[in-house]
């Protein structure tokens, strides 16, 4: 079986182009969409992510504000910056780049962001709205996974979906989104009994477990669609790899995302979409 290799770069580019056209309409109506990003410290990976987000803003025409704070910033100082951005009428979305240095109370900071400006969809209000099926913005990675499935023609309604991983950022919101599209959903995790058997029931597998190449062909039903959310570095080669053993799984599935080039590019594209959406919600 030749699987469809789902091209996250191409689909992300498509979404960014759609956002760019909508942002242009906003500008023509005299409104500028603005994203504020706060980076604390000098973590190299975080700096790369922030750079990529700024670049994406440029591509789609969103104005980006960047606040770079020293690594020894305390919780209260960071909260004061968040509150200031909450109050600014010219800011539509606020993103605090994670992880934060150890001395900062991450949850306190995320909860301080105005839910109407929470582009990451991490605030408890936005998580709750998603849980009752009325989301205003959704965590970017799971939202991106749904776009990958839909735009690749993978049928979700009526299918059995298994999400491997139960994090607040991917696993749980992913399950809610699949449920809203009428899949029958199981969340599997490290304490799941007979994990292989559970995953093997799935028509759609979303792997978000953080273990390099853990999901092999033994876990996959013939013809399943496999979405790999994992980003790991191979200890031997130093290359990026996912939670799915791509070479082993590809021959048995109908569609699969590569790492890199699958889910990764979608996260930033959905961030742009969320910022536009929040700008529109705030104008209503």
Features:
284 residues; Rossmann fold; alpha/beta; three-stranded parallel β-sheet; six-stranded parallel β-sheet
Q: Any overview of this molecule?
A:
The chain is α/β, with parallel strands linked by helices and 284 residues long. The protein has 2 domains: 30-115, Leucine Dehydrogenase, chain A, domain 1 (Rossmann fold), CATH 3.40.50; 140-264, 3-Layer(aba) Sandwich (Rossmann fold), CATH 3.40.50. Helices cover 42% and strands 15% of the residues. The chain is built from 10 helices and 11 strands. The strands form 3 sheets. It has a 6-stranded parallel sheet. Strands 3-2-4 form a 3-stranded parallel sheet, sandwiched between helices. A two-stranded antiparallel ribbon has the order 9-10. Helix 6 (140-151) crosses helix 7 (171-180) and helix 6 (140-151) packs across helix 10 (264-283). It is globular. The N and C termini lie far apart (49 Å).
Secondary structure layout plus pairing:
Elements: E1 4-5, H1 8-28, E2 34-40, H2 44-60, E3 63-69, H3 75-87, E4 93-96, H4 106-112, H5 124-131, H6 140-151, E5 160-164, H7 171-180, E6 184-188, H8 195-200, E7 204-207, E8 225-228, E9 232-233, E10 240-241, H9 246-249, E11 255-256, H10 264-283
Parallel strand pairs: 1-11, 2-3, 2-4, 5-6, 5-7, 7-8, 8-11
Antiparallel strand pairs: 9-10
Helix pairs in contact: 1-10, 2-10, 3-4, 6-7, 6-10
């Amino acid at each position: 079986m030749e699987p469809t290799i789902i091209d996250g770069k191409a689909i992300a580019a498509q979404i960014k182009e759609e956002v760019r056209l909508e942002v242009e309409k906003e500008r023509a109506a005299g409104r500028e969409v603005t994203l504020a990003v706060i980076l604390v410290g000098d973590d190299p990976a975080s700096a790369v992510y922030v750079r990529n987000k700024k670049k994406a803003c440029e591509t789609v025409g969103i104005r980006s504000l960047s606040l770079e704070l020293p690594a020894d910033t305390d919780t209260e100082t960071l909260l004061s910056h968040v509150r200031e951005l909450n109050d600014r009428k010219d800011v539509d979305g606020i993103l605090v780049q994670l992880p934060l240095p150890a001395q900062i109370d991450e949850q306190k900071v995320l909860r301080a962001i105005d839910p109407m400006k929470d582009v990451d969809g991490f605030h408890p209000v936005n998580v709750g709205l998603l849980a009752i099926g009325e989301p205003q913005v959704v965590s970017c990675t799971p939202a991106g996974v749904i776009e990958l499935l839909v735009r690749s023609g993978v049928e979700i309604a009526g299918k059995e979906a298994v999400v491997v991983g139960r994090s607040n950022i991917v696993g749980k919101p992913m399950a809610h989104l699949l449920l809203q599209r009428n899949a029958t959903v199981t969340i599997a995790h490290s304490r799941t009994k007979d994990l292989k058997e559970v995953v093997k029931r799935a028509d759609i597998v979303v792997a978000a477990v953080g273990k390099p190449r853990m999901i092999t062909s033994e876990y996959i039903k013939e013809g399943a669609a496999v979405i790999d959310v994992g980003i790991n570095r191979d200890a031997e080669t130093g290359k990026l790899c996912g939670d799915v053993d791509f070479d082993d799984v590809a021959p048995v599935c109908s569609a699969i995302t590569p790492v890199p080039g699958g889910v990764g590019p979608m996260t930033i594209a959905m961030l742009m979409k969320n910022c536009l959406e929040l700008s529109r919600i705030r104008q209503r």
